[in-house]
Design goal:
The chain is an alpha/beta fold. The chain has three domains: 20-247, SGNH hydrolase (Rossmann fold); 272-393, Jelly Rolls (Sandwich), CATH 2.60.120.260; 403-624, SGNH hydrolase (Rossmann fold, 3-Layer(aba) Sandwich), CATH 3.40.50.1110. It has 22 helices and 21 strands. Strands 7, 8, 9, 10, 11, 12, 13, 14, 15 and 16 form a ten-stranded antiparallel sheet that branches. It has a six-stranded mixed sheet with strand order 1-6-5-4-2-3, sandwiched between helices.
Length: 626
């Protein structure tokens, strides 16, 4: 009579165990708020190749894999493409030392020297478990929360995902029936901000504990998976992405995330890399700015070989450090914060080549108080400074200045531009010159790409107005990123981008015309067919990548012996009776003769910074000045 009851109890227990195992297996991911904004961008597909920025360690790079396509980042992109096959997607993988601690400093806008922007795109996938394994858990939790907040502060529509990959310490915790401390804290952060999380560590640990694969077969070094291990990660990624993509409908428009108060009161979300040439950094002794770095991603570095040369930075914030390049010939530093005794920061004795060194000098400072760091060269050798790691703020030296004062201050710190424009350059823009001289309103439309955006940002019209105070210049920037006249000449775009602005002077330039001067001619002819009195100024390219033709094949004089864009633009200008400014020549000549590396004038790999914009603006000022 007892057997049915015993059997029933046995099967109930077995069923509960199975349900429990299934539930536990499902816990390896949490969808939470999902990534609806990214679903919107995937569906809209209005920005070409959409960048998904993965930030983490060697697991992202596929270290040790025979089949690189097995890396989990590639599998995640594959999963998104399953639901949005038409969407252009690129993954950018940012590997770095220092785990989430260094990541916190890399996500702020305007990284002037450190030449890598990691928060581009619309989806951030953060994986720091392997690199954070040696960090104190109190530091790791504050850095990770600060990084999450920084990404949202960078752009409020950014979607975010936390990923945890397996380490030996995590496997031991799971074998003991415990949740690893790092994952426990990370999940608190994910819950607080409604961020999806993918616990690859738990999924893999369950497979190992169940005997489906040994840890040695899963990973040869304890961190980076083998191909067999990566296939286990791929299984988990596929399940996670399916759940993620089906949990929320695609919204009609992206919605800005509102940051709640920090989960941990000590969290500071003001991480940034302060450029060494910031106005608040005071130099004493012999320093050479704008020098080429022996390694990327620095755009330029500050070099000294003078013992006693010093840098002083005043700031507010909770933490201060530096990021530099160290090598076999590096000098030692000594540093002091807030007048304390100087401490030594030794150069590494085992350096075998140039290496990036991000390092904290002081933590736990009163974030609301004023602080001062003094950094000195303390031994023979070479120092190669990239910038200061600051969780806090520095005062803006230009804050109280008007635009004209700001650009004058920027240019005052540069070598003056020496350029003599050609005579007769105004022959085809007589009405423009008349308005400049005699007064009136001049409507100037800039047509092109983001480099023409740099041209607009130079505020050159203020410089020209200073030379021609009777004229009121109305500057209209009609621009589209990565777009040239091949695009503008089609359909009714000339109407939308040019004619509706009723230009007196149309200025066409940028680097996105694809070497097609005939496309430029087509735009000119379409404009004049509707508005014959429009005058036109053609500009040859400035800035862009060093791979671009106008830099790669640069000659100071236009090469008239063979077809090239500068020569072809010059011919179009002559035949269509347009003004022509070969800006390429004096622009690149100035940079070549400056004694500074190209990156000194760059805001990223393609575009100008404030100094670069002033080269453009001052050249236009000189060209227009009689």
């Amino acid at each position: 009579m007892m057997m049915p009851a015993i059997k029933k109890a046995f099967f109930c227990a077995l069923l509960c165990a199975c349900v429990s195992w299934v539930a536990n297996a499902a816990e390896f991911y949490q969808v939470r708020g999902g990534i609806p904004n990214s679903q919107y961008f995937f569906k809209a597909n209005t920005v070409g190749n959409q960048y998904l920025f993965f930030i983490g360690n060697s697991v992202l790079a596929g270290t040790g894999l025979k089949d690189a396509n097995l890396r989990y980042s590639a599998q995640m992109v594959k999963g998104f493409k399953k639901y949005f096959p038409e969407a252009g997607m690129n993954e950018t993988r940012h590997m770095q030392p220092g785990g989430s601690w260094f990541g916190l400093f890399r996500c702020s806008k305007g990284q002037a020297v450190f030449g890598e922007v990691i928060a581009s795109g619309h989806l951030a996938i953060l994986d720091f478990a392997a690199d954070d394994r040696s960090a104190d858990i109190e530091q790791a939790k504050l850095s990770l929360e600060g990084l999450v907040r920084q990404i949202t502060l960078y752009r409020a529509t950014h979607s975010r995902i936390l990923v945890y990959t397996l380490t030996p310490e995590m496997l031991q915790a799971y074998k003991a029936g415990k949740t690893p401390e790092y994952i426990r804290v990370s999940e608190q952060i994910a819950d607080h901000y409604g961020i999806p999380s993918l616990n690859l560590a738990q999924y893999a640990a369950q497979k190992i504990i169940a005997g489906e694969i040994s840890f040695a077969a899963f990973s040869a070094d304890g961190v980076n998976p083998t191909d067999a291990g990566a296939k286990i990660y791929a299984e988990a990624v596929a399940k996670f992405v399916d759940a993620l993509m089906t949990s929320n409908p695609v919204p009609d428009k992206p919605k800005a995330y509102k940051l709640p108060p920090p989960l941990f009161p000590e969290t500071d979300d003001n991480g940034r890399i302060v450029a060494y040439e910031d106005q608040q950094v005071k130099q004493s002794g012999n320093w050479k700015p704008g020098q080429a770095s022996p390694i990327g991603p620095f755009r330029h570095i500050l070099v000294s070989n003078q013992t006693g040369a010093a840098l002083t930075l005043k700031f507010k914030g909770s933490e201060i450090g530096i990021i530099d390049v160290v090598d076999k010939d590096s000098a030692d530093y000594e540093y002091a914060v807030d007048g304390s005794a100087f401490r030594k920061l030794a150069a590494p004795k085992d350096a075998t080549g140039p290496t990036m060194r991000p390092i904290s000098l002081a933590k736990g400072l009163d974030r609301k108080a004023d602080h001062e760091l003094v950094l000195k060269v303390a031994s023979p050798g070479i120092t190669r400074m990239g910038g200061f790691l600051l969780n806090g703020t520095v005062a803006d030296a230009f804050a109280s200045m008007r635009t004209l004062e700001k650009i004058d201050a920027t240019y005052a710190a540069m070598d003056p531009i020496v350029y003599r424009p050609p005579a007769g350059r105004f022959a085809n823009i007589p009405k423009t010159v008349s308005k400049l001289r005699d007064g009136g309103e001049l409507r100037m439309v800039l047509l092109g790409d983001s480099i023409m955006g740099n041209t607009s940002s130079s505020s050159f019209e203020l410089l020209i107005t200073r030379d021609y105070p009777k004229c009121k210049i109305i500057k209209i920037a009609s621009l589209r990123s990565s777009t040239g006249c091949k695009y503008y000449r089609e359909d009714s775009r000339v109407q939308d981008y040019v004619l509706k602005h009723n230009p007196d002077l149309l200025v066409i330039g940028g680097i996105s015309n694809g070497g097609d001067a005939e496309a430029v001619r087509s735009v000119i002819q379409q404009v004049r067919a509707k508005k014959p009195d429009t005058e036109v100024l053609l500009l040859t390219p400035v800035f862009g990548s060093t791979r671009d033709e106008h830099i790669r094949t640069f000659t100071r004089e236009i090469d008239t012996t063979k077809s090239n864009f500068r020569f072809n633009m010059q011919k179009v200008a002559a035949e269509e009776k347009c003004a022509f400014f070969d800006m390429t020549s004096p622009w690149w000549t100035y940079i070549q003769d400056s004694g500074k590396t190209y990156g000194w004038f760059m805001g990223d790999a393609v575009h100008a910074n404030q100094r670069g914009c002033q080269i453009i603006g001052r050249l236009l000022e000189i060209w227009f000045k009689e």
